[in-house]
Amino acid sequence: MKALRLRKWRSDAELVELEEPQPGPGQVVVRIGGAGACHSDLHLMHDFDAGVLPWVPPFTLGHENAGWVHAVGPGVTGPAAGEPVAVYGAWGCGTCVRCRAGIENYCENPADSPVTGGGGGLGLDGGMAEFMLVPDARHLLPLPEGLDPVAAAPLTDAALTPYHAVRRSWPKLPPGSTAVVIGVGGLGHLAVQIIKATTAARVVAVDTRAEALELAEQSGADLVLRAGDGVTEAVRAATSGRGADVVLDFVGSDATLAQGAAAARRMGDLTVVGVAGGKLSVAFFAVPYELSVQTVYWGTRPELVEVLDLAARGLLRAATTKFSLDHAMDAYRRLQDGSIIGRAVIVPTGS
Ligand SMILES: [Zn+2]
Ligand SMILES: [Zn+2]
Question: β-pairing, 292-295 with 320-323?
Answer without folding.
Answer: unpaired
